[in-house]
Design brief:
Order of helices and strands of chain B: HEHEHEHHHEEHHEHHHHHEHEEEHHHEHH
Shape of chain B: globular
Number of helices of chain A: 12
Structural class of chain B: alpha/beta
Distance between the termini of chain B: 69 Å
Number of strands of chain B: 11
Helix content of chain B: 40-55%
Number of helices of chain B: 19
Radius of gyration of chain A: 24 Å
Order of helices and strands of chain A: HHHHHHHHHHHH
Largest sheet of chain A: none
Largest interface: A-B, 33 and 41 residues
Strand content of chain A: under 5%
Strand content of chain B: 5-15%
Oligomer: heterodimer
Chain lengths: ~290, ~450
């Protein structure tokens, strides 16, 4: 009986889970394993040569000063993107759950950038930064916008962050809204009756009760901004003079432009490790803050 | 109960095997190709059989013209269908080419830079049997110029030249008189013209701040100016890699950079030199917002159809010294930058034959030549052209070609693929004053040293 049941369960599982497992294996697990294997070879598309060379590629990664620099640059970029995107998303979500008029429209509006592909979005912001803003800057004499933000190392960094955060905010906002609706009304009412102000309600009730949403949001924004490539390509192309190349961009350049496939792939593995460690640590630490209402 | 279980198993099985079959289908098609190649000799051409070709295009600005050509060819040869694989202008073209190749799905025909074809020469068909035919079709020297390490791997179809383009009206209004391009023989001559134009309240020159323009076209002249022989220029690059060259002591490099300082000083984009919006820079030049433009005849693709543009344009060699006799001061840079090559790694013999026939049609038929010359605005290194070019700039370049006043920039075919991006970045730093001449030379030398022995 038991055996029959587990067989039936297995069958049901295969029907529903099989295709996704197959798809997941085909596009994630198998490429990952092949990719890991490639880092131990001197693979080259041009010659088709691929013999095992051990850890040479990894040693090369740590000798590639530019990559380490860009990894640091990426960390800074991720930090600011995650903070800005989450803070904005949190407060927009808060404002849009108060039951005011036109909330649905505003939510849709904030979410829309997420539906625009990164390349299109990058070109859109590129036009804004290199044409529209300098034009307005010249017309109204705004010092800040006189020259394109994309041609200066410092401002190009912020341009990247603004564009990425702008795309992320809508998505995170939806998760925060879901989190806020999970806060029980009786708790909020009780706080109201006790005479708690808005700030203390946010600090002492909403914030602790939405920790699960925060964990998810930070996780998503972390992994997404670590792997930003499309916006980087469309917005700055790594310029001016390669100073805004994110780690992913550097990896693609290394592999496909400089023809160092093995080293590029090894750098991708290193990046994967960095992202995995940071993302898992943050969700482990933040999960400890979760409370029951 | 039993029936349901059996049914669910059956469904699961079909789904999974179906997916697996979908995957393996591609593999079996590939292995069929390999088998076909084995008995190439026994293959006979079947005109009735449908052939599908793919065309990888790196001349992104003329994608639509190629598509029109493919349609026209398909009408005349219904059994041949050609599909365009487009790439973005100045975008990730090589990345796309490599990923197609690496995934075992390369395009049948490619339109690539000669240097890229050289790097992947094992994947392309040797066109030696076609050589005599094309030698008869093209201008003298055109096929020799397209040989890569002595091999005929790609068919040249376009010729390009670059230097200092000028907008005749803008220059003449600036200097208040007729402009004779032959009057500019040295850097000082050029500066005198610039000064007059600036005094007239106009911007003298447009310097495009993109890495490809600065790295490949401008700095790249350093390697081509060393000698008129490509072989000697290749030797110079080898010496750079071995660290035997000190660029700050190289007259060609210092001459070029002195002229660069001049262009930098009179640059219309001086306030924000790295903006590098190709369409905008070209349009501003065409409308007379700047009198000169360091660019090539290919910019006609943008300028030619522009509304409200000026009518008369020409080209000057970029002066690199104050001695009019020096090599470079009377020559414009000239090359056959793009070649058509045919894939030999996965394509079937039928596809290759069809590809050869199509390329020949494209470069020799009236339809093809009209499309290339009139619609793309490019000049072709072919004899007996059936279309007349409307590209004023390439006509101006042709005048230099006829007189043999050209700098052969063939050395770039042998340079590593990332040279323009890496050294272009160094040039950008120099352009905005981030590094000085010494620093620039150091960065460029360091780049080459990283290729020592490769």
């Amino acid at each position: 009986m038991n055996k029959k049941l587990s067989l039936k369960n297995a069958g049901t599982f295969l029907v529903f889970g099989g295709p996704s497992i197959f798809a997941f294996a085909a596009v994630v697990i198998i490429p990952f394993i092949v990719g890991l294997y490639l880092t131990f070879t001197n693979w080259d598309v041009r010659t088709g040569d691929s013999s095992l060379i051990g850890f040479t590629n990894y040693l090369e990664v740590f000798r590639d000063k530019v990559f380490l620099q860009q990894l640091w640059f990426t960390l800074k970029y991720v930090f600011f993107t995650v903070v800005i995107a989450n803070v904005f998303a949190f407060f927009i979500a808060l404002t849009l759950t108060r039951g005011g008029r036109g909330e649905q429209w505003l939510r849709t509006g904030f979410f829309t950038p997420n539906l625009v592909g990164g390349i299109v979005l990058g070109y859109l912001w590129q036009t804004l930064f290199s044409q529209v803003l300098p034009y307005l800057g010249a017309k109204y004499g705004w010092e800040l916008f006189q020259t394109s933000w994309l041609t200066n190392t410092g401002t190009a960094f912020w341009a990247l962050i603004i564009a990425t955060a702008w795309q992320l905010v809508g998505y995170l906002m939806i998760i925060y809204i879901a989190g806020f609706t999970g806060v029980p009304n009786d708790v909020l009412e009780a706080a109201n009756i006790d005479g708690a102000g808005r700030t203390s309600v946010i600090r002492r009730i909403i914030l602790p009760l939405t920790v699960p949403a925060i964990v998810i949001c930070i996780f998503i924004s972390l992994s997404r901004s670590f792997l930003t490539y499309d916006i980087n390509l469309a917005l700055t192309k790594g310029g001016p003079f390669n100073s805004t190349e994110l780690a992913t961009y550097h990896i693609v350049q290394k592999a496909f432009l400089s023809n160092q496939y093995g080293v590029g792939q090894a750098e991708a593995v290193v990046l994967f490790a960095v992202v995995a460690i940071i993302a898992l640590t943050q969700s482990y630490l933040l999960k400890k803050l979760e409370v029951e209402s | 109960m039993k029936l349901r279980k059996a049914a669910s198993f059956a469904i699961a099985l079909t789904v999974v095997t179906g997916l697996l079959a979908g995957c393996s289908k591609g593999n079996s098609a590939n292995s069929a190709v390999k088998e076909d190649k084995g008995n190439e000799g026994t293959q006979t051409q079947q005109a009735s059989k449908d052939v599908k070709l793919t065309f990888f295009n790196t001349s992104a600005e003329v994608n639509t013209v190629f598509e029109e050509l493919f349609k026209k060819y398909h009408e005349q040869n219904p059994q041949v269908t050609i599909e365009l694989i487009p790439t973005p202008i100045g975008g990730a073209q090589l990345e796309k080419f490599q990923s197609l190749l690496a995934s075992g799905n390369p395009a049948t025909i490619v339109n690539l830079d000669a240097g890229t074809i050289l790097q992947y020469k094992d994947d392309f068909l040797d066109l030696e049997p076609e050589k005599a035919k094309y030698e008869a079709l093209t201008n003298p020297g055109a096929i020799d110029g397209a040989l890569l390490d002595g091999q005929f791997l790609g068919i040249p179809w376009t010729a390009q030249g670059y230097g200092l383009l000028y907008n005749k009206r803008a220059v003449e209004e600036g200097i208040d008189g007729a402009f004779d391009p032959a009057s500019v023989k040295t850097r000082d001559d050029l500066e005198a013209v610039f000064k007059k134009i600036e005094a007239a309240g106009k911007a003298p020159v447009m310097l495009h701040g993109a890495d490809w323009s600065l790295g490949a076209h401008y700095l790249g002249l350093t390697y081509s100016l060393q000698s008129q022989k490509v072989e000697d220029n290749r030797k110079f690059v080898e010496e750079l890699k071995n660290g035997q060259v000190n660029l700050t002591e190289n007259p060609q490099f210092t001459g070029l950079m002195d002229t660069f300082d001049l262009l930098k000083k009179y640059n219309a984009r001086k306030s924000d030199p790295l903006v590098a919006d190709y369409n905008r820079d070209s349009a501003d030049f065409a409308k007379g917002a700047a009198a000169f433009y360091f660019m090539g005849d290919w910019s006609w693709a943008v300028i030619g159809t522009l509304e409200g543009r000026d009518a008369d344009f020409g080209i000057l060699p970029l002066p690199v010294s104050n001695n009019p006799e020096d090599f470079g001061n009377t020559q414009v840079a000239y090359s056959e930058p793009k070649l058509f090559a045919i894939d030999d790694s996965k394509s079937t013999p039928e596809q290759q034959e069809a590809a050869k026939a199509f390329i020949e049609w494209m470069v020799s038929s009236e339809d093809g030549q009209k499309a290339i010359i009139s619609d793309m605005g490019l000049s072709m290194p072919y004899k007996d052209l059936k279309a007349k070019s409307t590209n004023i700039m390439s006509n101006a370049v042709s005048e230099y070609v006829k007189q043999g006043k050209i700098i052969n920039i063939g050395v770039i075919n042998y340079l590593p693929q990332d040279y323009w991006a890496k050294t272009g970045a160094a040039m950008q730093k120099y352009l905005v004053g981030n590094i000085d001449r010494q620093g620039l030379a150091q960065e460029v030398q360091d780049y080459w040293k990283s290729y020592a022995g490769k």
